[in-house]
Amino acid sequence: MEIIRYDVRKLPLLPNEHSNSYCGLFKISCGGIHGFAEFALPRGSEPADLVKWASVFGLLKGLDPKQAIHYITEHQSLWGEVRVHFLLKCLDNLISNLENSEHMAMSQDQVRAFLMKYALTYYSF
User: Which helix (H) or strand (E) holds 21?
Assistant: First the structure.
């Protein structure tokens, strides 16, 4: 699992209305296949410490996607709507990509190179 916070002004193809947001991407992997979900929070509501904010996601490590979904829904009231929403979105994307793995367009190295090009903050767990 990885979470990346971006310099929104440098991201390609992102409309300018997001320039006042704290944006990032969460990536979860299973067997070399990745699931992604983006998040955007208005400035001022972003977590002061991304690592601390994302540390609860480490509890998902080693769970299969369906177990992870169950775990997330059990902790929804503790984790808050924003985290739960994008975690479930990420797991849905992962499940879809696992089902269609023969159509994956980017290798893990390509994905990592793209993500790191725009990263301000990076956390892997």
Answer: strand 21-30
For 53, the enclosing helix (H) or strand (E) is: helix 50-54
CA separation, residue 47 to residues 39, 40, 69, 93, 101 (Å): 12, 11, 23, 24, 34
How far apart CA 14 and CA 96 sit, in angstroms, is 24
Determine contact, residues 107/48, Cβ cutoff 8 Å.
no
Measure the CA–CA gap between 125 and 120, rounded to whole angstroms.
17
- Token readout for 83 is 């985290």
Contact 125, 1 (CB under 8 A): yes
pLDDT at 72: 94
The tokens describing 6, both together, are 């971006």
pLDDT exceeds cutoff 80 at 108: no
Residue tagged 């979904």 (tokens) = 69
Whole-model pTM: value is 0.78
Q: Which residues contact 102 (CB under 8 A, 6 or more apart)?
A: none
Kindly list the strands in the beta sheet with 21-30, ordered across the sheet, starting from the edge strand earlier in the chain. 33-42, 21-30, 2-6, 119-124
